[in-house]
Task: inverse folding
């Protein structure tokens, strides 16, 4: 047992206010005892506490007094010990946070007669608590206001944190989400793998890492819709257990943009890969349906500009494609009619229906049967884009979403416009190419018709001239008849040249009928062929045989033609009295024919031109225009050889025709 | 005995007539037809064999290739010389002809060829 003095000393040494009160009949409390700690804590003297009636009611913070009075009343009523938090306004106005622990004092008949308790200064604790709360609020604020969805789960994979971004991303309120297993928000196919991921992540002890590359994983909303996400996960150990926090970012837009870029890049490759626009369009249809559209249709403006031709229509269902074609047959487009006034090929503007309501259909389609059929197709959303090429509208591409229940947005409209632009370029290129091909074919046809049809009458002229000469027996007829003959032969030769040029131009060169030909025999043939012509012009033709004859494997007729063309050219430009030299030289594995004249020469800048068929140089006449040298070059090249020229103005010209021997 | 004739089958009238006159002048009796069909009709009626047939290839109604096939199908063995502007030998390679003369015709070569069959 403690003696009275010692008990008093003990009470005085408590670092808190020890006190006892008694309930007065007027409801107030009279202070029976208070220790001196009250002075150091609050600045009021023991006397003030003891002798001022209801002193505590004066010093308690006004905001707390009512609540504390209530708490005491309840404690008294239930006859239980209680704790109250209250603020005391100290003498100098300082507010001291306190905690009072008190018990009810009862008399022998168990009637409450007063309170006995201890009041402690808890300012430090309160400060710490406030600090904690502030920190927590700040943290919550950060998490809640984060742009990324933040979801924390405990060790049993139950959601404990679900921020506002998560609410928006998953379209569910946090209070509904918290407590649910995380798997609720994962597509079925990921659930098992996901548990494994978390377990492995936990085991490896890495505190944070990106879960996968973007777009590779998906999340699921409460309504079942699935969308791509990027996620990072982190782990914290708390006294309550491990917590895993996932930070999620919706990748829908990013994946869409990537998909769109890939789609357009593919389209560009397709457009560049073919000059046949039907092929191009069906390839474009293939990459468009069903990824970007359920329906893909390309219309081209007809030549008269009054209608549209459906040149490509694509849908996954063959029957639907047939239906579309059938509808177009039954309801041909008349662009001049009021129904098509707003057609994109008339307006030149993209027509975009994010949502095709019945009002859209009834406004666009006047025919009741067509309206009925169109309604049954379940069209949801559409984009129609006019195709332009070099400022002219050439048709339109229509993209429609139907049974897939997807709806287009502005990004899709941009994509559709980009794709249509590429398709228009493809069609334009194909048309230009087709026109160019047609023009070439026309020219070749004319060339071949003209040369074939000219040959027969010329031949008749020639035969008749020969006949005339034989029948006449009159010397005076000889010269004019010979002239007719020569002119007819020249015209025939020219036609042969034209024919050969046509063959060269058809591509792939012409066929060579190779045979073994003696080099010296060929030179002799040249001499026989041109001797008389040279003499007529007062020229000397000097043909030099080669010492060691060689056997060539060549098209005899063609090679002779090439040599003849070059020699004719030399004879044509040689002044009277000059010499034209023809020879051949072995040059390693090649034979080089040489044709030299003493004519005016060719300026070096024309060397490259003279072998061209279409050379139209101002001095063309002076150096030999026409087809001769062009043909000679083509013949030598067909044999794997080449033609070259050396010349200087006033020093004559030398042509070299070289041929590989083997 | 009457000398055997030279038959000319050629659609171009000027060429056909000139050839015929020239050969007549050189002493060969001639018979000329304007296409393969007319020629074939003649040989279906006449059993007389010519010493040589000068045959053009590109002709309307019936061309030279078809004429030759059907002529041989009649069991006729008269020599045939193809006279054509068709230049590539492979195109006439399959033809059962005894010689090939390319247009424009060189008269000396033509006369030498005719002489070799009709001497």
Result:
């Amino acid at each position: 047992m403690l003696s009275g003095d010692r008990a008093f000393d003990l009470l005085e040494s408590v670092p808190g206010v020890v006190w006892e009160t008694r309930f007065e009949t007027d409801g107030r409390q009279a202070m029976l005892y208070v220790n001196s700690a009250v002075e150091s804590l609050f600045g009021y003297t023991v006397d003030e506490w003891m002798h001022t009636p209801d002193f505590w009611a004066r010093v308690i913070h006004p905001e707390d007094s009512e609540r504390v009075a209530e708490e005491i009343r309840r404690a008294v009523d239930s006859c239980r010990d209680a704790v109250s938090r209250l603020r005391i306004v100290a003498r100098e106005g300082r507010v001291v946070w306190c905690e009072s622990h008190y018990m009810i004092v009862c008399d022998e008949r168990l009637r409450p007669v007063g309170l006995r308790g201890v009041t402690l200064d808890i300012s430090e604790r309160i400060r710490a608590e406030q600090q904690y709360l502030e920190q927590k609020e700040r943290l919550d604020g950060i998490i809640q206001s984060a742009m990324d969805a933040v979801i924390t789960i405990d060790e049993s994979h139950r959601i404990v944190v679900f921020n506002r971004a998560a609410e928006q991303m998953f379209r569910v309120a946090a209070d509904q989400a918290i407590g649910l297993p995380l798997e609720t928000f994962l597509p079925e196919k990921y659930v098992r793998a996901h548990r494994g991921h978390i377990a492995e992540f936990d085991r490896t002890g890495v505190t944070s890492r990106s879960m996968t590359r973007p777009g590779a994983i998906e999340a699921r909303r409460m309504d079942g819709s699935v969308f791509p996400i990027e996620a990072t996960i982190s782990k914290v150990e708390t006294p309550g257990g491990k917590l895993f926090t996932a930070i999620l970012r919706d990748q829908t837009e990013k994946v869409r943009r990537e998909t769109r870029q890939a789609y357009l890049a593919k389209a560009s490759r397709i457009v560049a890969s073919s000059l046949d626009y039907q092929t191009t369009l069906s390839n474009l249809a293939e990459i468009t349906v069903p990824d970007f559209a359920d329906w893909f249709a390309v219309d081209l403006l007809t030549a008269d500009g009054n209608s549209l031709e459906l040149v490509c229509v694509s849908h996954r269902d063959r029957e639907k494609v047939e239906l579309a074609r059938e509808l177009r047959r039954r309801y041909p487009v008349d662009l001049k009619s009021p129904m098509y006034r707003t057609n994109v090929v008339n307006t030149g503007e993209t027509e975009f229906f994010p949502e095709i309501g019945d009002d859209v259909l009834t406004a666009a389609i006047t025919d009741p049967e067509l309206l009925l059929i169109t309604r049954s197709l379940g069209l949801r959303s559409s984009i129609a884009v006019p195709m332009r090429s070099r400022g002219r509208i050439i048709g339109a591409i229509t993209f429609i979403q139907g049974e897939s229940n997807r709806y287009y947005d502005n990004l899709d409209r941009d994509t559709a416009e980009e794709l249509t632009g590429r398709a228009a370029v493809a069609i334009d290129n194909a048309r230009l190419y087709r026109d160019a091909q047609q023009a070439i074919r026309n020219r070749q046809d004319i060339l071949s018709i003209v040369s074939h049809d000219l040959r027969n009458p010329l031949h008749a002229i020639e035969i008749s001239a020969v006949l005339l000469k034989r029948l006449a027996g009159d010397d005076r007829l000889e010269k004019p008849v010979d002239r007719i003959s020569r002119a007819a032969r020249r015209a025939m030769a020219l036609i042969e040249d034209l024919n050969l040029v046509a063959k060269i131009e058809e591509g792939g060169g012409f066929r060579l009928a190779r045979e073994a030909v003696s080099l010296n025999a060929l030179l002799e043939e040249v001499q026989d062929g041109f001797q008389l012509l040279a003499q007529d012009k007062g020229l000397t033709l000097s043909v030099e045989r080669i010492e060691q004859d060689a056997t060539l494997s060549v098209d005899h007729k063609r090679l002779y033609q090439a040599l003849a063309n070059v020699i004719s050219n030399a004879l044509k430009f040689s002044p009277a009295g000059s010499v034209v030299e023809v020879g051949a030289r072995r040059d390693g594995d090649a034979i080089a024919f040489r044709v030299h004249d003493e004519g005016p020469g060719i300026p070096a800048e024309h060397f490259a031109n003279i072998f061209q068929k279409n050379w139209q140089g101002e001095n063309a006449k002076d150096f030999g225009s026409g087809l001769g040298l062009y043909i000679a070059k083509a013949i030598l090249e067909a044999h794997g050889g080449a033609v070259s020229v050396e010349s200087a103005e006033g020093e004559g010209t030398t042509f070299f025709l070289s041929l590989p021997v083997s | 005995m009457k000398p055997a004739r030279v038959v000319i089958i050629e659609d171009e009238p000027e060429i056909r007539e000139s050839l015929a006159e020239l050969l007549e002048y050189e002493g060969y009796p001639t018979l000329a037809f304007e296409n393969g069909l007319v020629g074939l009709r003649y040989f279906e009626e006449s059993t007389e064999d010519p010493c040589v047939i000068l045959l053009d290839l590109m002709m309307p109604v019936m061309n030279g290739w078809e004429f030759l096939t059907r002529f041989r199908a009649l069991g006729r063995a008269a020599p045939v010389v193809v006279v054509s502007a068709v230049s590539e030998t492979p195109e006439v390679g399959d033809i059962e002809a005894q010689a090939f003369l390319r247009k424009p015709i060189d008269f000396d070569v033509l006369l030498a060829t005719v002489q070799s069959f009709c001497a």
Q: What stands out?
A: Chain B has five helices and five strands.
